[in-house]
C-alpha cells in the first residue's frame, strides 16, 4: 500500500498495549511488557516561514515521519506515520537502559526495517537530485547528541531540522539603477546529503532558481528566498582576507577544478537597460555575477542545514572595459550590508644606508587590508606583483634587488618606488655615504646550552651543548649574530654538575633521577680545549631548573570470582552445581607529573572494607554471602542446567566510610 496515499501508523513487531502512537521494544519474550518502563517522546517543529522560492511547498509541511530507537547496535523499536505527527505523542515501553533515537521526515519510500543496524542509519544518505520537494516537503532529520537514559529521561522533545538552508536574497541597484536582472540560479548544489553526520558529495547540477515573479520583485527592490541542500566543503582558501579572491580561478589554484566544482554558488545574469537616462545609458551589454556561498565571504564554503542566511548584492561598475576600478572580477559578498575595503602598501628596504659602491639591498612590499576602516588580518608580502624603480640613476633596480653603482656623489639620497599593474604606488628613502670606511669588529663567546632549559622533577633526560656565538658590529652597530654547535668539534670536553641528583656524561647527555619529587636546580659546567691545542676555552655555565613534582595515585577496585565446582553423575541435562568464592582486589598506580612511574600493584583489600553487598541478575546464581576468612568470602551457589555459561556478579562496599566503584566479577563455568 502506498504510504503517501493512505494514512496509517506502522509499528515495530512487539506485543504491547498502545497509547496514541505506540512502539515497543522487541524483548524476545523473556520478561514480557509488564516489566517495561514507559518513555514519552513529544514532537515539535519550529514555526513556519512564509516566503517562497521556485518550490511551492510550505517550509513546515510534513507528509511522512519515522522514529527509530536503537539499543546498542540494533534497532529495537520504531514508529512510522504518513500523516502530520505534531498532534500526537509517541509512547514507547522500554526496559531500563540507554538508547539512541533517530527521526526522518518527508523522505518518500523510507522503511525503518531497512535499517536494523545502527551503522546502516548512520551511513544513510538522502537523495536530493530531482527530489519532489513540492509533493513531499523538505526532508528533515533529528537525533540526540547523547543517549536517552531510562528511567531518568521520561520526556524527549523532537526538534526536526531541515537538511536545506534558507537564503534570503535581495539586490541593491542604487549604484547601477540601469541594470535589469534576467535570472538568478543556484548551481553545483548537493545531489545527496548524509542524514546523520557531517559528510556529503556534490554533483554539478542546478538547484533552486528565481521564478518570473521573483525576478520582477528583485528588479522592483524586493527580495526572495532560495532553499539549498547542506553542502560541507570547509575552509578551502585558508588565510585569504580578500573577498574579491573568493572566485573560481583562485579556488582551482588552491584545490583543483574537481573540488572547486563541488562548491555551491549563486549566479545572477543582468543586462543594462538601453532606454536608461532618456536613451543615453552609461553602459551597454550583459554581465554575470557569481558568488560562492559559505560561512564567510573570504575562505569558507560550508552550507549548514536548517540555517537562515542573508545575501545583499550591490552591483558596481567603473567602465565597460573594467569590471571594477582595479581591473578584478565582479563578485559580491554574503552580507546584509556592503563592507568597504581599503588597501595600504608599504615598501620596506633591507638597508637604510649604503656605505660602498656596488653595495646591494632588497626591497619588499607588504599589503594591509582594512575592512570598514579596521585592520583585517596580518600584512601580506606582495613583492612579486610590483615593478621597482629609483629617482636616482645610480640606484639600479633589478626586479626587487637594488645596488649603488660607481659614479654617484659621496653622499646622497634617493627614492625607491614600486608600482603594480593596478596602479598601486608606494616608496621608501635610501641614502649612501661612501667616504668613511666602516669599522668592523667581531666578538665571540662560548656557553653551555640546555635542551630543554626548564624541567620538572622526575621528567627524565636533557641535552647539553657547547655553543660558539659570533657577533659582528659595523661602526659600533650590531650587524648580525650567528651561533654554531661546537660540541663535537673541540679537542677535549668534560661536562659536570654541582647537584648529585643530576647526572651528565661527556657527550652532553644528562638526566634527573626519576624518583626525584622535589624542585631544584643545578649548574651545568663544561671544560673544553681548542682543537689541536691544550689551551682551555672559557665556557659560560648554564643553570638547570625544575619544579616540584606532582605525585598522584590512581586506584581501581575489582571483584575477583573463583568457582569451586563438582558435577552430578548422570546425563548432560542434570543440574550442575558449584560453590562460588571470591575477594575484592585493589590495583594502585603512581604518577609523577602525569607520567606513570610505578604500578599497577595488586592487593586483596577485602578485610579493609565494610558494608559489602553482592547481587546477580542471573537466576541460576544464588547469592549467599559469608566470610571464609577476613580476606576471602563465599559469594554463593551455582545451579544450572547449562553445560557452559557466564554471569556478572555486582558488588558494593565502603572503604574508610566512602563508597568505592567496584568492577563486577565475571563467573564463567564449563562442565564439558
List keywords for this structure.
672 residues; mainly beta; seven-stranded antiparallel sheet; 5% helix; disordered N terminus
Approximately what portion of the residues adopt beta-strand conformation?
over 45%
Q: Outline, from the CA principal axes?
A: flat
**Mind telling me the C-alpha Rg?**
39 Å
Distance between the termini: 53 Å
Main sheet properties: 7 strands, antiparallel
Q: What ranges have pLDDT less than 50 throughout 5 or more consecutive residues?
A: 1-37, 45-52, 318-330, 332-341
Question: Helical segment tally?
Answer: 6
Mean pLDDT: 80
Helix content: under 10%
Topology, number of strands: 50
Q: Helices and strands: which structural class?
A: mainly beta
Descriptive notes:
This protein is mainly beta. The strands form eleven sheets. Strands 1, 4, 5, 7, 9, 10 and 12 form a seven-stranded antiparallel sheet that branches. The longest helix is centred in the first third of the chain and has 8 residues, at 212-219. Residues 1-37, 45-52, 318-330 and 332-341 have low confidence and may be disordered.
Amino acid at each position: 500500500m502506498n504510504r503517501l496515499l493512505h494514512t496509517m501508523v506502522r509499528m515495530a513487531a512487539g506485543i504491547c498495549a498502545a497509547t496514541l502512537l505506540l512502539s515497543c521494544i522487541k524483548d524476545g519474550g523473556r520478561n514480557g511488557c509488564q516489566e517495561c518502563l514507559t518513555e514519552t517522546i513529544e514532537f515539535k517543529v519550529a514555526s513556519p516561514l512564509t516566503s517562497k522560492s521556485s518550490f511551492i511547498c510550505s517550509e513546515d509541511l510534513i507528509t511522512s515521519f519515522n522514529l527509530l530507537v536503537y539499543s546498542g547496535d540494533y534497532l529495537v523499536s520504531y514508529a512510522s506515520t504518513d500523516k502530520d505527527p505534531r498532534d500526537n505523542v509517541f509512547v514507547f515501553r522500554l526496559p531500563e537502559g540507554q538508547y539512541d533515537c533517530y527521526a526522518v521526515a518527508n523522505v518518500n519510500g523510507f522503511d525503518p526495517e531497512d535499517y536494523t543496524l545502527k551503522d546502516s542509519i548512520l551511513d544513510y544518505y538522502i537523495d536530493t537530485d530531482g527530489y519532489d520537494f513540492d509533493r513531499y516537503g523538505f526532508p528533515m532529520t533529528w537525533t540526540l547528541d547523547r543517549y536517552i537514559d531510562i528511567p531518568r529521561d521520561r520526556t524527549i522533545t523532537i526538534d526536526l531540522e531541515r537538511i536545506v538552508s534558507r537564503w534570503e536574497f535581495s539586490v541593491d541597484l542604487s549604484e547601477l539603477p540601469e541594470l535589469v536582472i534576467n535570472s538568478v540560479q543556484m548551481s553545483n548544489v548537493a545531489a545527496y546529503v548524509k542524514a546523520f553526520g557531517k559528510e556529503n558529495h556534490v554533483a554539478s547540477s542546478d538547484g533552486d532558481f528565481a521564478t518570473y515573479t521573483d525576478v520582477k520583485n528583485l528588479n522592483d527592490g524586493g527580495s526572495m528566498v532560495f532553499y539549498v541542500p547542506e553542502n560541507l566543503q570547509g575552509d578551502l582558501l585558508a588565510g585569504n582576507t580578500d573577498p574579491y579572491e573568493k572566485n573560481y580561478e583562485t579556488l582551482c589554484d588552491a584545490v583543483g577544478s574537481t573540488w572547486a566544482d563541488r562548491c555551491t554558488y549563486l549566479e545572477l545574469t543582468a543586462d543594462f537597460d538601453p532606454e536608461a537616462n532618456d536613451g543615453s545609458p552609461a553602459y551597454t551589454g550583459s554581465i554575470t555575477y557569481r558568488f560562492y556561498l559559505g560561512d564567510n565571504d573570504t575562505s569558507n564554503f560550508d552550507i549548514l542545514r536548517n540555517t537562515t542566511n542573508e545575501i545583499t548584492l550591490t552591483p558596481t561598475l567603473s567602465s565597460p572595459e573594467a569590471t571594477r576600478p582595479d581591473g578584478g572580477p565582479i563578485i559580491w559578498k554574503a552580507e546584509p550590508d556592503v563592507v568597504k575595503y581599503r588597501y595600504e602598501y608599504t615598501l620596506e628596504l633591507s638597508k637604510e644606508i649604503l656605505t660602498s659602491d656596488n653595495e646591494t639591498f632588497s626591497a619588499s612590499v607588504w599589503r594591509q587590508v582594512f575592512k570598514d576602516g579596521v585592520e583585517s588580518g596580518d600584512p601580506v608580502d606582495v613583492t612579486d606583483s610590483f615593478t621597482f624603480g629609483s629617482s636616482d640613476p645610480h640606484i639600479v633596480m633589478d626586479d626587487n634587488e637594488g645596488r649603488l653603482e660607481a659614479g654617484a656623489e659621496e653622499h646622497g639620497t634617493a627614492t625607491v618606488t614600486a608600482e603594480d599593474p593596478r596602479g598601486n604606488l608606494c616608496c621608501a628613502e635610501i641614502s649612501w655615504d661612501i667616504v668613511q670606511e666602516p669599522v668592523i669588529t667581531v666578538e665571540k663567546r662560548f656557553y653551555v646550552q640546555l635542551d630543554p632549559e626548564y624541567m620538572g622533577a622526575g621528567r627524565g633526560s636533557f641535552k647539553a651543548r657547547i655553543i660558539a656565538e659570533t657577533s659582528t658590529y659595523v661602526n659600533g652597530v650590531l650587524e648580525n649574530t650567528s651561533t654554531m654547535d661546537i660540541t663535537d668539534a673541540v679537542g677535549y670536553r668534560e661536562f659536570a654538575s654541582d647537584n648529585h641528583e643530576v647526572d651528565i656524561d661527556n657527550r652532553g647527555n644528562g638526566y634527573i633521577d626519576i624518583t626525584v619529587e622535589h624542585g631544584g636546580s643545578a649548574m651545568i659546567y663544561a671544560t673544553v680545549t681548542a682543537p689541536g691545542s691544550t689551551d682551555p676555552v672559557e665556557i659560560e655555565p648554564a643553570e638547570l631548573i625544575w619544579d616540584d613534582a606532582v605525585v598522584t595515585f590512581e586506584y581501581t577496585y575489582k571483584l575477583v570470582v573463583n568457582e569451586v565446582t563438582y558435577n552430578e553423575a548422570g546425563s548432560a541435562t542434570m543440574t550442575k552445581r558449584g560453590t562460588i568464592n571470591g575477594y575484592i582486589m585493589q590495583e594502585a598506580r603512581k604518577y609523577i607529573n602525569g607520567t606513570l612511574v610505578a604500578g599497577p600493584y595488586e592487593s586483596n583489600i577485602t578485610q579493609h572494607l565494610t558494608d559489602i553487598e553482592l547481587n546477580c541478575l542471573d537466576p541460576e546464581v544464588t547469592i549467599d554471602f559469608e566470610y571464609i576468612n577476613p580476606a576471602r568470602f563465599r559469594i554463593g551457589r551455582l545451579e544450572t542446567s547449562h553445560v557452559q555459561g557466564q554471569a556478572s556478579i555486582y558488588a558494593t562496599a565502603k572503604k574508610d566510610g566512602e563508597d568505592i566503584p567496584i568492577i563486577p566479577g565475571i563467573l564463567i563455568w564449563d562442565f564439558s
